[in-house]
Prior knowledge:
single chain; two-stranded antiparallel ribbon
Amino acid sequence: xxxxxxxxxTIRILSIGYIAIALIGAFLLTLNFAHKNHISFLDxxxxxxxxxxxxxxxxxxxxxxxxxxxQMIILALIQIGGFGYIGIGLFIFIIVxxxxxxxxxxxxxxxxxxxxMDGVLRFLKKIVIFVVLIEFIGAILLxxxxxxxxxxxxxxxxxxxxxxxxxxxxxxxxxxTGLVDFKTDLYVNLIITSLIITGGIGYFVILELYFFQxxxxxxxxxxSKLVLSGTxxxxxxxxxxIFIFEYHNTKSIGTLSFFDKILTSYFTAVNYRTAGFxxxxxxxxxxxxxxxxxxxxxxxxxxxxxxxxxxxTTIIVLFVYTYWIIKGGRIRVFSQxxxxxxxxxxxxxxVSSIFYILVCVTLLSFFEDKIQFLPLLFETSSxxxxxxxxxxNGGTLSLSALFSTNSKILIIILMMSGRIGIYAFxxxxxxxxxxxxxxxxxGKVYL
Length: 447
């Protein structure tokens, strides 16, 4: 009981921190030096929340509506959201040799979704090095391409911004039309998707892969095996679905060459994993693509990284559980049994997420009765899973740009709850029931 109460307290502190940072970011974006055109506080808050939650839905064009300083604020929010403000703050404490107590370590553990507090500070140090190194390499590789198109200053900024945005699965772009101009560019596509996948598999998996490759680890953990295998399966499956559904659609990929159709389908599939970049007009996708895209977004990436959604491990656990219930046998995968507590949590996350999405999309349908249901479901799923892809407003902005004040507020809540995590979000909403030493009689329920 004490552990649950402690978790609720920790989650409350983390949540308040992210909300405070989003408000500070919104205030900074409303200042004259940060924007070129008029921006309301609501739109500034929407942008700030989208950045801190690493979503990428935009109601103002990052390239044309914000100055260089405004873009720097957005990028800083993305980095804070991706790494976690607790991690950044405690890393500064480590640098200045300040002692970190139990409460700080517990906050860090929850922020990074690390298994326990033993070694969490060492884990933090290693993660900082890896994040900086990966983003630096990504920026250098992109710079080699962008310097052929832009002058040195702009090429460098575009490279840094997109490397950080991609690794943190944010989807913000300093190009007016996103990455549409690089639709058939294999080099840029592979770099961006590699950064997205690396950030999306989670910090824990990244470190395990490093130690495994260095032969300092005999075997990968069950968690890493599930994340890596599940990620590969979902990306391949999503790529095939987009390729098949859109093959003859001249408004999306129908006019491209066979190889470019595969490349564009792959890029879109990877971005469904919680990054908001796009190289084609998603508003031109068929209904089937939008529907399955919504499902892939809801699943999301891996825990403990920059991805959102209900998490791939949650879905795998449910599928494994269903398989063994039908077949009969111990609930196991990769020769390891899954604890009942994990199965219960997976069910809780999935059911609460579906209920939450249905409520939100119903409210959106009520507020925006002139917009069809499927685009609203797509936008809701994108906000909830902190993805950022959208069918658009007919221009360069997300569909949310057309929304009323009530709808924008709802999307802001969706993005923030997606950043906190749906399980943590519901822990904040529902009060803990007091422990009762009462044994209730069992009743039969027929299914």
